[in-house]
Design goal:
With 74 residues, this protein is of the alpha+beta class. The protein contains two helices and four strands, in the order H-H-E-E-E-E. It starts with 5 loop residues before the first helix and ends with a strand. The model has no long low-confidence stretch (mean pLDDT 96).
Length: 74
């Protein structure tokens, strides 16, 4: 499975739309900023034929810091 970075995604959108890279970058960043804002408000985002984004609360669990091996609540 390959990883696509935000930069690569911006380049693809710019090429597909014929817009300059800076315009595509502003649009992608505005989209991501709005996703973050809405999730921060506790809202649910639903994109048909793509997916649903929502914040879920979970109980805290104990993990381990790999450097110090100290237990950490996450």
């Amino acid at each position: 499975m390959a990883t696509v970075t935000k930069k690569e995604l911006i380049d693809r959108i710019a090429d597909a739309s014929g817009e300059k890279r800076i315009v595509a970058k502003k649009i992608v960043q505005a989209f991501l900023d709005n996703v973050i804002i809405e999730l921060g408000k506790g809202n649910r985002l639903e994109f048909r034929d793509f997916g649903v984004f929502e914040v879920k609360q979970r109980r805290a669990r104990t993990a381990q810091n790999p450097k110090t091996l100290a237990p950490v609540q996450v």
